[in-house]
Write a structure and sequence with these properties.
Four copies of one chain form a homotetramer. Chain A is α+β, with helices and mostly antiparallel strands. Helices cover 27% and strands 22% of the residues of chain A. Chain A has eight helices and 19 strands. In chain A, helix 1 packs across helix 3 and helix 5 runs antiparallel to helix 7. Chain A is globular. Chains in contact: A-B, A-C, A-D, B-C, B-D, C-D. At the A-B interface, strand 1, helix 2, helix 5, strand 12 and helix 6 of A face strand 1, helix 2, helix 5, strand 12 and helix 6 of B. Strand 12 of chain C pairs antiparallel with strand 12 of chain D.
Chain lengths: 368, 368, 368, 368
């Protein structure tokens, strides 16, 4: 097992390296009868692709997806959907030096320890380029969710010390700026902050928030496959994520029971709502029908053009100063990746939940 | 799938409810030849069992484990190890009222939504009693880890506003007080805090930190089965956990690259170490051989004896004030559960990693 | 992984040895809302239990099942159903000799090779006693199938050279005789045959046929999880099975296309039927709605009281003559085991198939 | 789940249709450090590719494999290996008629029942063309097995009534004739038989035998993941297979215990051998170190140019006579597919078995 398959019923299998022939994904378990074309996938890929902002890597990739299977007459057939994005802009580069050094914050050392050697060109399999495949699959997952009425909204919530002000929140701004931020004032401050870091050859961390609306209740399986447990896995599997919160997150630790419990009340239309949402839409690992709220914290890009202490394979301590085409901030490009992982996890739990009630089994087999 | 199986090679399957006949676990995939007896398991169960502290539920359970299979002449045979802990102290109780109400912070509503009805006695399957099975299995996992030299140390790091002071840290204190805290001064303050909350019928949240030492490098599978991704799943699957950090955690979001990168250097003995450990021992989802550091944040017990707004199944808004045998704080009893989930996840990744290098395959089959 | 978990959505986890404390099974993923009591399970266990026939082991076991979890007010809750059958009649026996010998046809040698040592008492985990757990879980699976209208009928189709004559087939006879044969004349001949073998201390092989009626079409997943592929796995996992046929089975190899193809025609009620059923109800790995027909071939019990050549652990060739309580024929007791494996596999495929069409997803989430 | 992923640690994910852009496979979990190039894979694909024989479909496909990822400097990196074979010779064809008819022996009806519609061009996903991906992955599996000394030899053992005579067996003939038969006299007779059938527009079934030599003992997991159980699944998942035998197969049913038991004896070199091999190299689901012997029975190609009764989607009974490019016999081309499934299953069990003994764990982590 090399860890590149995700899901139980809606399963994706990804492959590809930064400087290989491309990256790709095969979806096994997409239900039949869903309208799907390359444009559905391309529009999410375009939100992730590099070379669009002064704050992302200047590497130019068109990131054009080709669907290779699983669609017939514009609809999913129920059999595997394979997609490929060819690499076109791997810069020729002399890797002689880098191949012998373990860079701080990079996977050079751990891959060598695990596998005995590594594809050192651009990070190989550990490159952020791998997330292209997640985004492609995520776009398909979103199509399914949208038929149920589920919508996922991710955005950059902070960059270094600059935080989005909830009072300025405008959803329509998210994809209007280079930083995927829903607050135009925060964007201005963050751009200044990043410009300064970029001049130093330094980089910045940040955070991403994600809201899921239109959720049915009942998704998530008790004990180990709780909805939040599987979301946590999916999100922590994104390269640079180092912390995850659901609902009130770390604040629950300093709250008391009476402060943290979300009281219920009936709406006039007979629906049950909660007066607050510290739970973030998930109780006991099962969705309660209110919005899911989650947040991830992302470390600064390890690739910086500053002098660092490192080691080489000859047993020597060395100083390095890595040049290359890197993002001073990866957070804005990771927003669509976070959305993808949430979508992929939700679709899987949605399908798994179908068989948990005998009533549903009878409904599908027309025996009710 | 109802989510009660965990792991790929070292797989546990758990069962049981708060007020049923007991709880149990079957381990499928424990390697053969490990010394194991009931006492090995009992000593971890004793750290979790209720009724030992003024701050935990007064329910008295001996939590005596019986090993039913998989051991022969004191050693694991490689076949399934089944363990059972019988419930003995389910208080008789009139559930008529509770069966019709959805209590804030409890799983009453979500279980009914998912399954159509629920075992409402003491929370049924969603009770914290379920974690007994995790702890039993975790004790077996720890035996395996200890043979490799891996040690897991968890402790309460905060209760409400009271935090452990790292300068006062004494590992030997952890199991010396009711709160599983390694700082005697923090214990005193926390006891005062909890006593006050208890008088009000209120409860407190808190946090747990966990350190894993003696780690081999190379554990964790790229992309989706990263070591931190699987740890995040395991930990978030513990009932009340609402946030998880690995290494520097949420702080990485406000750091710059030069601050966050951990520089390498060679030790005199030829080993590579990192000057800092913001990564928390995991880079690119793979262990780097330094200590793993992680932290979870736990919500306050939802069971409080204070008036709350809730709803009943007749479509009415009601006020409730739940009595029962509940913990004003569950954090101290959750420490051993956190250790168990870390142990279970690490053993699984340890076994999975064995086959990732052809050199290892040849070593096992004596072809090198 | 030690191979004792079966299924994807309807997952069973079994444990237990011949001479340990008992055997058991936990079902994870049984839909909620199904009526279930111990009697439902006991009636299948009673068909398997030893000591009922002159041709099965004289070991007396009541094989009384206890359901430990997952039922509330007579219905499945959707959470794990744990069941245990305690061993009560392990005869005390001197295993000194047997522990050092590798008996022909037994697992002594392969278990030692795999695990380094073995529980040699009565075959340990490799004992046929393990199938008790399959039968218990299978009984639950049958309850689900029966709500959909699916019925499974297994029977002994041959014992040694004695074959059931299809013209004499009487379903009601199957559980009326010691040999689970639907043909009273064949029973008589088989009893004579077995009596003679028993006197010699020898044993007999045989075959079991199984018919599944009331099948919905559409079960089975393309390529690797074909319905017949998963049935083949489930059936071949029963200890002594050495061959499996679906539909016309081995005869297809000598047929031509025109002979083997099953022609379709419309019934007057608009249903499509096939004029023949060489396919055995499965085409391209997917059920076609006609009866499933399958057959397994079972080797003779290896435990015989005749002199055989064997080896011991001291490096010596030896002659052995094993005494013990063994079945001269295990086929009749395996009928209910075959039914159980078919039921377990079908339920799993039934639940998996629910999510393969978007129409079904919409139906369950009330969006159609 | 649509069933196109196979394996636990060595996992393959396949995709592609007969008349789509191509077929492909991604291997997740191939150990690092194995020499691998496209030629290693191509030589197995060449044994399967169509258009080489008077008895296989005249469709011309070069079946050229492109490796897209997972190789660096000629060696596997341990990360996913993606391979693609583009379709180049899909004949343009008028499918108007075929799209409305359910042909006997084909998957038209079952796919429509399962998915609501189907890609009817050349069978879509249910086409034998899907096996290209299995063969490509199987070639990689064989590279691993060969490093352990395991060799797989498959061959056509019968075509219709013509059987290979064991006395004429010549391994070197297998790939010397169009029919993959190791007996030149049988080849002659079979060619005559097939020529006659072809003139009629009819087709033939047949059988394939497969021998695995150089097996280590200990592979296979007790109870459900027995080695023979997983082999049975893998083999039955090949489209046209309708029966499977391990070792003595169906003959065990008419044998007595004394006839069927394989006696052990020590060789002069201290190795244990069996005097016979009715077990086919597997006892209790675990390899015993002797050769594995298995046999599959394959139905005649359903595509025949003869008049058959069928139904259409308008509710009418019709007569059809399908023209197309089909194989009068698929058995010879399936030999390499059988080998592939055996190789894929064995590698997976080989890797899984590594962690079943604590001794092995310690060996890999250098603690012994």
């Amino acid at each position: 097992m090399s860890g590149s398959i995700y899901g139980t019923l809606f399963r994706i299998s990804t492959w590809g390296e930064s400087h290989g022939k491309g990256v790709g994904v095969t979806i096994d378990g997409c239900p039949s009868g869903i309208s799907l074309c390359e444009e559905d996938v391309q529009k999410d890929l375009d939100k992730r692709k590099p070379g669009q902002s002064p704050f992302s890597t200047p590497r130019k990739e068109k990131d054009e997806v080709e669907i290779l299977s699983g669609i017939f007459e514009g609809k999913t057939t129920g059999t595997p959907i394979a997609m490929i994005v060819r690499n076109t802009n791997q810069r020729s580069y002399d890797y002689t030096e880098i191949s012998k050094i373990y860079r701080p914050g990079h996977t050079d050392y751990t891959y060598d320890q695990k596998y005995g050697f590594r594809d050192y060109r651009g990070g190989g399999r550990s490159s952020g380029r791998e997330t292209t495949a997640r985004v492609a699959a995520g776009a398909v997952a979103k199509k399914i969710l949208s038929e149920i009425g589920i919508k996922i909204t991710g955005y950059t919530s902070s960059i270094g010390p600059i935080k989005v002000n909830k009072d300025h929140f405008k959803e329509e701004e998210i994809w209007n700026n280079f930083l995927s931020m829903p607050d135009v004032e925060a964007v201005k401050l963050a751009e200044e902050y990043l410009t300064k870091l970029k001049e130093q050859g330094n980089s910045s961390g940040g955070s991403i928030e994600c809201i899921v609306s239109g959720m049915p209740s009942g998704l998530g399986e008790p004990v180990f496959d709780k909805l939040d447990a599987n979301l946590a896995k999916g999100l922590m599997s994104v390269g640079a994520v180092k912390a995850i919160e659901i609902g009130a997150g770390i604040e629950v630790a300093t709250k008391t029971g009476i402060e943290n419990n979300d009281f219920y009340q009936y709406q006039e239309d007979g629906r049950i709502i909660k007066e607050s949402n510290n739970a973030g839409g998930i109780i006991g690992g099962i969705s309660d029908g209110s919005d899911i709220f989650l947040k991830v914290y992302i470390k600064p890009t390890p690739s910086i053009e500053m002098t660092q202490r490192a080691v080489n394979k000859n047993g020597e301590n060395v100083e390095i100063n890595v040049e290359g085409r890197h993002d001073p901030i990866i957070v804005p490009r990771a927003v669509i990746v976070v959305e993808a992982m949430v979508a992929l996890t939700l679709v899987d739990m949605l399908l798994i939940n179908m068989s948990t009630k005998m009533d549903n089994v009878l409904k599908v087999y027309n025996k009710d």
